[in-house]
Specification:
Strand content: 15-25%
Number of strands: 17
Shape: globular
Strand order of the largest sheet: 6-9-7-8-10
Largest sheet: 5 strands, mixed, barrel
Distance between the termini: 41 Å
Helix content: 25-40%
Order of helices and strands: EHEHEHEEHEEEHEHHHHEEHEEEEEEH
Length: 358
């Protein structure tokens, strides 16, 4: 375990594609989505128990979720919970954490991870991260974990790499964000594209230099707060800083532009768990291909994912390849193949029924 290794968990998203289970006041990262007795956030933090000391784990979240983070990760100090006044995508989020940690340790190596991903191969993950951290500590490189694609999925970003046989860390040739199906199929067949996992590893000085070069307006904003980080004045500064930051992702703002980005190919049993279909894919099925979480009686029903409250008996008959999801005051029944409509459902529910339903 290296005291220079820090973990930044991004936990501010709403997860609208997982509606109605993921809601504005209780997003999916705070739920026990997999039924393992821990929330996604708790599982993510636990994933790094053998990688860095607990005091080196930082969570970036929306200020509205402060109580949830403290409840679920009581071991964190207030200084380890970074509160965003408003969501501005991943670049400002990562800049905030990077500048803050750089004040604590200018030699820090950062692992940046979403809070709601699944990793099924823990031992492999620990080894992969340690290898990536060692590379980032030695050289001025920005590393992302790449996942070998199993299907032509249009919901992921793709990375094309230059195959250097003598190294497990490959230089990135191109990034492509969420291609159409035809392009995704071509990527899959070519064999030199991987999914972008959204898990990043770099030395703090390397990422600060990249911000300075490619997102100078964000760099300037956070550099002004150098003396306030890790002090009582930090939150007031961050409120002002975020009002000056545009909405931009780390992929678009930096990773697609720098020439020192590398990908480490990682077979870690990964899923971003971004959709109902992704939850269906990784779960155990019954004899009829159903994934069931709830008090449910099924008749002539197959290939469905059903997630309903334990205190409500649900009886289903004659369904084939559906999502049946109930949480709080919303029940959604939707064809699995049409799950891209979930965002449309959320928008319509908000405009026609009000914020109580989202």
């Amino acid at each position: 375990m290296d005291n220079n290794t820090y973990v930044v968990i991004m936990a501010g998203g709403i997860g609208s594609r997982f509606w109605p289970y993921s809601r504005t006041n209780y997003p999916k990262q705070f739920h026990d989505v997999l039924g393992v007795g821990q929330s996604m956030l708790q599982t993510t933090a636990q994933r790094f128990a053998d990688i860095c000391p607990p005091e080196n784990v930082f969570v970036v979240t929306n200020k509205d979720y402060e109580a949830l983070v403290k409840e679920q990760l009581p071991e964190l100090s207030d200084n380890q919970i970074l509160l965003e006044p408003v969501g501005r995508n991943t670049a400002p989020c990562i800049a905030y954490a990077s500048y803050k940690i750089a004040q604590l340790n200018p030699n820090a190596n950062l692992v940046v991870t979403p809070s709601d991903h699944v990793v099924l191969k823990q031992d492999v993950f620990t080894s992969v991260i340690n290898n990536a951290v060692a590379a980032a500590a030695k050289d001025d490189v920005l590393i992302t974990l790449g996942i070998t694609p199993s299907r032509p999925d249009t919901g992921y970003g793709y990375i094309q790499y230059i195959d250097e046989a003598d190294s497990e860390i490959k230089k990135v040739k191109t990034f492509t964000e969420k291609p159409n199906l035809e392009l995704a199929q071509m990527f899959l067949e070519s064999g030199d594209f991987v999914w972008n996992s959204g898990i990043f590893i770099w030395n703090v000085q390397s990422i600060l230099k990249a911000f300075h070069q490619h997102l100078p307006e964000i760099s300037e904003v956070f550099e002004e707060g150098t003396t306030t980080f890790n002090s009582p004045q930090e939150q007031n500064f961050i409120t002002r800083a975020y009002s000056q930051c545009r909405n931009v992702s780390i992929d678009y703002g930096i990773m697609e532009k720098v020439d020192n980005v590398y990908v480490l190919l990682a077979d870690i049993g990964w899923s971003d768990l971004g959709t109902w279909n992704s939850l269906y894919t990784i779960n155990d099925k019954d004899a009829n291909g159903n994934v069931v979480d709830g008090d449910v009686m099924l008749y002539d029903t197959k290939d469905c994912i059903i997630k309903t409250p334990k205190n409500r008996l649900v009886v289903l008959q004659g369904l084939d390849d559906f999502i049946v999801a109930e949480y709080d005051n919303v029940l959604m029944i939707c064809k699995k193949e049409e799950e891209q409509k979930v965002k449309e459902f959320v928008a319509d529910a908000k405009s026609k029924k009000g914020a109580d339903y989202i």
